[in-house]
Every structure is written in structure tokens, then in C-alpha cells.
Amino acid sequence: MTQKLKAWFMGLPKALRILIAALLIVLVLLVPRFLTSSYIMGIVCRILLYCTLAGSLNVINGYTGQFSIGHAGFFAVGCYTTAVLSSHYGWNFWFTLPIAGILTAIIGLLVALPTFRMTGIYLSIVTLGFSEIIRLVALNWTGLTGGPLGIKGIPAPQFLGMNVRRAGDYYYIFLLFAVLFLLITARVLKSRIGRAWMSIREDQQAAQSLGVELVKYKAMNFAYGAFWAGLAGAIYAPYINYVDSNTFTLDEGFNILSMAIIGGMGTLGGPVLGSFVVNILNELLRPVSAYRLVVYGLLIVVMMWIRPQGLIGASDSMLANNRTGLDLLERLGFKKRKTA
Question: Which of 215, 236, 217, 214 is nearest to 225 (CA)?
């Protein structure tokens, strides 16, 4: 579907394409002017936040075939990093962002490196355990994280001397990072690194025979996904103005995973659509919130049965059109090793 839409758009005259793109950009920038309700803007902000969160998980699960379900742990690390640095030490919000991203990426590497020989359910259990460990540390390290009481009164970001407080203001921050994530990830996936990731997903042994260093590229993949999850947590902390361990339960990890699966893993647009669908469902299911995860579970089961590639499907995959990971690697200069 997305390929057809792209082909249709590219078939238009150049002037018309520029005009449509300019109009879309203007409409996106004016959304807070049209949606004056703070409740609706809150939903929009959450959708944009999860575009980055689900997208970063999709980089790990969808593009290398690794299976992580502990993304809430990385989200928590980024969130607490900004909360602690800005609340306890008075750091400027914008300075905490790279620290949160880099620290989360390092922790992601520390979690991933010992587990690279594991695949499937074993790797997923390790990441699930990591997520729960992070939550318990946050719950019990009272001196740093506030323990069960959490961290309150997280300072609001400042931009041009003004405090960012309203959901309409945060909209632009969430939008900026969602767009940056999509643009940068698109470039990475078209690079030698991205092709190597996808070749690992298709066939690890064949990729290794062509010179792909599995540990190196898997580590880069895990660190990249964790980095963006940390950034998502960093911008979420001042938005909610309060952080505690209850935000990062196992339910949150499955919530992020459901967005990637429903939208379509291995595609850039899948997590974006999945974020929209799941967050809208979340609002519609508020009267029966106790059964929310049951509905998500049933939805995932139905998706796996009817459309296992997700709503968007594999048309956005860079391995589509019958191209294999080996073809892509050979085009990029990887050569098959000679055996004696």
C-alpha cells in the first residue's frame, strides 16, 4: 500500500509534489492551533512519543531479527536520567538529552553483549528480566529515584527563555524527535550498516560467510535502539512532571511491542501506524481498562493469523522485491570467504 502511494506521489509533477509537501508541513505545524483541547493534544503527544519508542524497538526486532520485550527498561533509564539530573543537580533539560541517550545505549550494550549467542525466547527472557530489574532498582533506590514516591516537580524545558509547559508546546518537541528518528533511521537502513542488520535477520550464517561480524553489528543495532528509547524517556520525564516505577511495568513493555507488531515490524511506517491505533484503542477502552491487555492480546493473535506482516506489511521492507540479504551485501562489497 505504501509503495503504491509513494509511486503515485512520485508520478506527480515536481511543482505539485513540492506544494503538497509544503501544505502537509504547514498543517502539521499548525495542529496545536486547531486542537485546542489539552486532552486531545495529550493523546497526540503520546502518539508521537510512541512513534519513537515503538520505532526504536522495531529497529531491534524488525531489522535484525533479535527479540527484545524489555524496552520499558530502556525507556525508564532515559526517563530517570533526565529526572535525576534536572531535579537533583539542576542540569538544563537540553544537556540531559545526550547524556540520557548515551547512558541508555551503554546499558543496552551491557545487557546485549553477553546474550548474543542466545536467540528467540531466550533473548526475550533476558531483556524482560532486565526491564524488571530496572523497575525494582528504581523502586528501592530511595536516595536517587525517590523510591515508591518517585521524583516530583521535574523542571520544564526552556526554549528562547520561555518554559515549555502546555501539551501544545510539548507537541513540537515530540514531533521533532519523532521526525529526527524516522529520518536518521531511514538513512542508517540504506547504509552498509542497515543492510548488514537486515542480512542478519534473513540468514545469520550466510551473512557471516560474507564477512558480516555478527557481534559487532548486533551490538550496534541494540545500542542504536536503546539510544532512541532513552531519548524518548528523557523528553517524557518533564512532560508528565513526575516519574515513578509504576510507569515502567511489564505491561508497558508489551504495550510498546504491540504497537510494533500491529503496525508491522521491519517497516519504518509500521510503528507509526501501530502507535496511532493502540493509543486510540487505549482511549476507547478506558471504561474497561481492566481488560485492555486482553483486547491487545486478542488483536495481536488476530493480526498474526490474518495479516502476520502487520497493517502496513512488508512492502516497506528494504528486502522486498525478491532481493535477499546476500544480494545486498555483495553489492556493498562484502565478499564470501574462501574455504580451504
Answer: 217
Quote the CA–CA distance of 209 and 337 in Å, as a whole number: 6
C-beta of residue 80 within 8 angstroms of C-beta of residue 145: yes
Q: If you search the block for the grid coordinates 511543482, which residue do you land on?
A: 15
Distance CA 84, CA 119 (A): 34
pLDDT in tens, 167-178: 788 899 999 999
Rg over CA atoms, the chain: 21
Residue in 119, 273, 128, 106 with CA at minimum distance from that of residue 201: 119
How far is residue 308's CA from residue 316's CA, in Å, rounded to a whole number? 15
What is the pTM (predicted TM-score) of this model? 0.84
Contacts of 106 by beta carbon, 8 Å cutoff, 6+ apart: 223
Q: Report d(CA 242, CA 45) in Å as an integer.
A: 16
CA–CA distance, 108 with 94 (Å, rounded to integer): 22
String of DSSP letters for 224-238: HHHHHHHHHHHHHHH
- pLDDT tens digits, one per residue of 47-97: 999 999 999 999 999 998 888 888 999 999 999 999 999 998 889 999 999
